[in-house]
Write a structure and sequence with these properties.
heterodimer; A: mainly alpha; 2 helices; rod-shaped; B: alpha+beta; five-stranded antiparallel beta sheet; 21 helices; 25 strands; elongated
Chain lengths: 99, 581
């Protein structure tokens, strides 16, 4: 009888412990989720600040101060093809732009 | 032995009795506990229910609106999270003092906050401030005022201020696009809101998220445009300087990469000036610069002499004239057409060749050759160059311009259109058509978005004239710069080819043109042997006492923009060092 009572007690405690662990875990998920959202929003804020601080006119002013000889970036950073590689559609309408 | 046996029996009996009693007690205690558990589970007390039941709260998840980027990935518009503060009067400790308390925290006017609360006494959501500063957010959080809450919201930022504002547009209060790209690409840019349900404790602190009840927010997609901020910035400044210097009503300017059809810069400025009522017809622009219409795509204008190269190229292509063919142009009075119409020139040169007709921008020579061509051929060529049709460049509000319908096309039209009269074109139509001379005779599809190189749309072009005709026309347009109306727009760095136009300003009420008001324009491409860009500039109604010819007013703007853009793009100078300019 004592063994049964003790066994029930141990099982009960174990179940309570598992339940508490689950509660702790889900709570931790919530905390992490909030942290993630906070970091994401901070990242958005930082991106905005970077965009403001690297405006071309500000970069130009900085470069002028440093007296560095900068070279222009070559044309077409998207590596676009030259005109001779384009498809010529004789007598056709230009294809309308659709986003 | 005999005396110990009864003693043991008695002890054993007592132990057994106590053990039974203990077990009974334990069972009774367990029964009570189980009974209590059953009672709590089946019929708990109301107060217990109120405090023990987990409370579920829902919360909206903010998604980020997509960024607008220029061709090199610079941010034109982006979003971040800001906070608004609201009051729930039903929850506040003392509704009479909350305005004072919150005002002290926000460094605001308590009377204003009290007024906000009084406006909607029954509401449980009264916004006091729609966008707090960072220090105000911290102050509200630290103050822990009951009934006062912070709500996150998206805030749109335009890091470059008013630069390119007429094409970037703006967003409204609910972060939806109201004008420009923001409106045109609203569906792509807009995020989808997510939702989150979480269990909270009695103090409203979040305990855990219910995974089944979590819908993540989806951020909007970024869009990269073909605009280059550096080119745009210089173009806007140069255009504004010209408009101010000439006391003009406004101006338009477009820069395109003629090899791809991408729009690198697009400017549209209006200036309040006495006698120039164009501004009053764009009331939305007064509300916000980004809400005005983009006249580069919406407002057609009469191109005047800048239209002549198109007719010149078509007439040459079809064999109605050759560049060295001599034409009997008038030497002191106007030219009479076969129908008796008098065509005047600004200057008279007498008998000249067909190329000089374009170089000196002679209306009479254009009319002479126009009469050799059939109406259908001229109508067809106007249509082939894309006039009277949208360019579908991706900018909202584009119009098709004004082209006389075939059934109303008369002899008068036939001799007017070649010199750029009786036709209305938009600036984007004009620059797309002119890019034919900067390419190999094909016309590109104009674009405001930066697309991938393998895009079918990107590679689609439309042949208008032969490569030989392009070479001939481009040489004639170079001659315009050397000895024609473009002399004042010559560049020391690059060999330009272009054409000026000085059409008179049509009267708004109809019935002809103003005698002394003009809409000068200039269009040019460069470098001559391997053109990379084409620039068009139109100036609205400059002060004639300062200057009014296209080559003198708009020409220098085009030259400066070409010089700046090509240097910025790293295109080497093609101007011979000993070239006398």
């Amino acid at each position: 009888m004592i063994a049964i009572v003790l066994a029930f007690g141990v099982i009960g405690l174990a179940l309570l412990h598992v339940r508490q662990q689950r509660v702790n875990l889900t709570n931790e998920i919530k905390v992490l989720h909030e942290e993630y959202r906070h970091h994401e929003q901070t990242l958005w804020q930082l991106q905005t600040e970077i965009a403001v601080r690297v405006r071309p006119d500000q970069i130009r002013a900085t470069v002028d101060q440093e007296s560095v000889d900068w070279q222009p970036i070559p044309m077409r950073p998207l590596a676009m093809p030259a005109a001779d590689t384009q498809t010529i559609i004789e007598g056709s309408e230009p294809i309308p732009y659709v986003d | 032995m005999s005396t110990d046996a009864p003693l043991l029996t008695s002890q054993a009996r007592r132990v057994a009795y106590l053990a039974r009693l203990y077990v009974l007690g334990m069972l009774l205690a367990l029964a009570v506990i189980v009974g209590r558990v059953v009672q709590l589970k089946l019929a708990p007390d109301d107060r217990l229910v109120a405090s023990s039941n987990p409370t579920v709260s829902s919360q909206a998840e903010l998604g980020r609106r997509g960024n607008l980027l220029d061709r090199r990935g610079r941010i034109l518009a982006t979003s971040s999270v800001g906070y608004r503060v609201f009051i729930d009067p039903m929850v506040v400790d003392d509704p009479h003092t909350i305005a004072v308390d919150l005002a002290a925290v926000l460094n605001d006017d308590p009377a204003r906050i009290d007024q906000e609360i009084s406006k909607r006494p029954d509401s449980r959501y009264i916004v006091v401030n729609h966008l707090l500063d960072d220090w105000q957010v911290d102050a509200v959080q630290n103050a822990k005022l009951r009934g006062v809450g912070l709500e996150p919201r998206l805030v749109r930022h335009y890091p470059h201020g008013d630069l390119a504002t007429s094409i970037v547009g703006t967003v409204g209060f609910e972060h939806s696009g109201l004008g420009g790209f923001e409106h045109a690409f609203d569906t792509t840019l807009a995020p989808s809101r997510g939702s989150l349900e979480f269990v909270r404790d009695t103090k409203r602190r979040a305990l855990w998220i219910d995974p089944e009840q979590y819908t993540p927010a989806q951020d909007g997609r970024d869009i990269r445009f073909s605009i280059d901020l550096v080119v745009q910035e210089f173009a806007e400044q140069r255009l504004q300087t010209c408009v101010d210097e000439h006391n003009a009503g406004g101006g338009r300017l477009i820069v395109i990469d003629c090899t791809t059809g991408e729009i690198l810069a697009m400017c549209d400025t209006l200036r309040e000036r006495e006698g120039w009522d164009e501004f009053t017809s764009d009331e939305m622009r007064k509300t916000h610069p980004s809400l005005g219409r983009n006249r580069c795509v919406t407002d057609p204008y009469e191109p005047g002499s800048t239209f002549k190269p198109f007719f010149w190229a078509v007439a040459t292509e079809l064999g109605y004239a050759t560049p060295d063919e001599m034409l009997d142009c008038p030497d002191h009075t106007g030219h009479r057409t076969s129908q008796g119409r008098l065509i005047r020139d600004s200057h008279y040169y007498g008998r000249v060749d067909w190329q000089t007709v374009l170089v000196k921008s002679m209306n009479s020579g254009m009319a002479i050759v126009a009469e050799r061509m059939s109406h259908e051929e001229l109508q067809e060529s106007v249509s082939e160059f894309g006039f009277g049709r949208r360019t579908f460049c991706g900018i909202p509000g584009e119009t098709i311009g004004l082209v006389t319908p075939r059934q109303k096309w008369t002899h008068y039209t036939q001799t007017s259109v070649p010199m750029g009269h009786e036709i209305g074109v938009t600036a984007v139509q004009m620059i797309r058509a002119f890019s034919v001379f900067a390419r190999d005779g094909t016309m590109p599809a104009l674009r405001i978005t930066a697309t991938t190189p393998d895009s079918e749309q990107f590679r689609a072009v439309h042949r208008i004239v032969s490569e030989e005709t392009v070479r001939t026309t481009r040489a004639a347009l170079r001659d315009v710069m050397m000895r024609g109306t473009g002399r004042r727009a010559q560049s020391e760095l690059y060999q330009l080819f272009g054409k000026s136009g000085t059409p008179q300003l049509p009267k708004r009420e109809g019935g002809g043109y103003h005698e002394d008001r003009y809409m000068p324009s200039f269009i040019a491409g460069a470098p001559f042997n391997d053109p990379q860009i084409v620039v068009l500039c139109i100036i609205d109604d400059p002060d004639k006492t300062i200057a009014h010819y296209g080559g003198a007013v708009a020409g220098p703007v085009v030259r400066d923009v070409i010089d700046h853009t090509l240097q910025y793009l790293g295109v080497p100078s093609d101007q011979p060092t000993d070239d006398p300019i």
